[in-house]
Structures are given as C-alpha cells and as structure tokens.
Specification:
This protein has helices at about 25-40, 40-50, 50-65, 70-85, 90-100, 115-145, 155-165, 165-190, 190-200, 205-215, 220-235, 245-260, 265-270. It has about 270 residues and is an all-alpha fold. It is globular, with a radius of gyration of 20 Å. The two termini are about 35 Å apart.
C-alpha cells in the first residue's frame, strides 16, 4: 500500500528546492511560452476552460435574480485566488509538452493520478478557504457602509458606489482588502502547484518554496501578480468569456515561470 503523505513529501527529509534570481524579462518570456503552449492546440484548451465563462455567466444571472450585485467585483477578483488550483491541468499539459509527450486536452486530468494529489488537494482547500474569507470580508465591508439592503440591478449598484458617500471608501478599502488576499495567495502558491506536479515535496515545502521565491524575487513576483490580476479582470469584462483565453495562457505561463524560478533537482544533484 502506498504511503499517503501531504505535508512532508515522499522522502524521509524535507527537500528544499533552490530558488533562482529572475528578472522582469523572464515574466514576458514565460508569457510568450505560455501563449505558444496555448496556440499549439487552442480548441482543446478552450474546451477545457470553457467551464469558467459558463460559471461566470451563471453567477451573473444568479446575482441578477437574487440581488447580490455587491458580490460581483469580489467574485471577479476571486478568480485570482482560485486560479492557481484551477489551472492544474494546464500545468500538466505544459509539463508533457516540455518532455515531448502527447499533450492532448485529455491529459489535463492526469493530475488526478499524481503522487502528490494529497498535497495538491490540501492546497486547494486552503485556497477555497481564502476565497470564502474574501467574499465574507467583502460582504461585511459593504454592509458596514450601506447596510444589508442591496441594489436590485447592476446599474443601481454603480449609482450607489459613485454617488453615495460610502462609495469611495468601498472602492479604496475593498481594493486594498482584495490586494491583501491576493498577496497572501501569491506568496503561498505562486509556484506551489507546478512544484508538486514536478516533485512530490509535500504541501509544506511547496508553500515554503513559493514564499522564498517571492522574498528572493520581490519585484518580478509582485509584477507577476499585477499582470495576472489585470489579465483576469480584463478577461472577465465581456461576460467572463475572455477567461477562456486568459486562464490557459496564464496557466501555461505559470509552469514556465516555475521552471525559471526553481532549479531542477538534477541540477542540484550535479553540484
């Protein structure tokens, strides 16, 4: 029976990957490589991530019917929080292309057979908890400024935000609050999931490595967070349909960013 492990990885001791120094130019190179992976077979990848625009449209209809429009912006921002987990299949496709293996869209589900699936699931739960806390905090902020009565239309929400006294406070404080949650996600998972797919080091080491990567390369990593956040926001504007292109490109690019940031295990053994 295989040994089930989550926090510590498969080995007898913690395997701490070596972090490399990267530059802003490496971010654009990762994006270029990610776009190349995407355009190799775009129809397959659009099919794979079509669920995200569908979910976005369903959420929009739900908010229109149940008058929960104040959660629209937090939900859009929430894609940045759950994105690292949602892109798991895309990391796998990029990994397979890198190794010269068949990389059709069906192989995205190979992550379910990964030896690190327990650690991956644990980090996924962590991101879901962060996402839930973000929505709860956003709702609490709105109610503290405008009360529990919510606008019945998107137009009503926009009028409330831009004309009532608490609107500016909501935008400023809400944006800062969202940035804080995004920063936590960046520091803990920026390269955690690709690392677990590549090397079964355990959830603890994956999170610790992501944190060290951000601390070692603060400017490039913060710039990466801004690029991803801005891209997800723009992709969400046309009824979330743009996410069908934005998410796979960022997903593939994250794998290539991981390769630039973390030294391969073979390179370390050769030292």
């Amino acid at each position: 029976m295989a040994h089930f492990h989550v926090l510590s990885g498969a080995g007898d001791k913690l395997d701490l990957p070596v972090i490399r120094t990267i530059h802003i130019s490496d971010l654009f190179d990762a994006l270029r490589l990610g776009a190349t992976d995407f355009w190799e077979r775009p129809s397959h990848y659009v099919m794979l991530v079509l669920i995200y625009p569908i979910i976005g449209i369903v959420l929009t209809v739900w908010m229109n019917g149940y008058h929960t429009w104040p959660l629209l912006y937090p939900l859009v921002g929430g894609f940045a929080l759950i994105g690292p987990f949602a892109a798991l299949g895309l990391y796998e496709i990029s990994r397979r292309r890198e190794e010269g293996l068949d990389a059709s869209w069906s192989h995205a589900f190979a992550v379910l057979r990964s030896p690190a699936i327990g650690s991956i699931a644990a980090l996924g739960v962590m991101l879901f908890v962060l996402f839930t806390l973000w929505l709860t905090a956003a709702q609490a902020l709105y109610e503290s400024l405008f009360g529990s009565s919510t606008p019945q239309t998107l137009t009503g929400l926009m009028a409330q935000v831009f004309s009532e006294p608490g609107g500016m406070t909501l935008m400023i404080v809400g944006t800062m609050l969202g940035a804080l949650f995004a920063l936590v996600t960046l520091c803990t998972t920026v390269i955690a999931f690709p690392l677990l797919l590549d090397r079964d080091v355990g959830a603890f080491v994956a999170v610790e490595t992501s944190f060290r990567a951000v601390m070692h390369n603060p400017l490039p990593m913060l710039a990466w967070g801004v690029i991803v956040g801005a891209g997800l926001f723009v992709g969400s504007l046309p009824l979330f349909v743009g996410l069908a292109v934005v998410i796979p490109i960022f997903g593939h690019a994250t794998w290539h960013l991981y390769r630039k940031v973390v030294a391969p295990a073979s390179e370390i053994r050769g030292m």
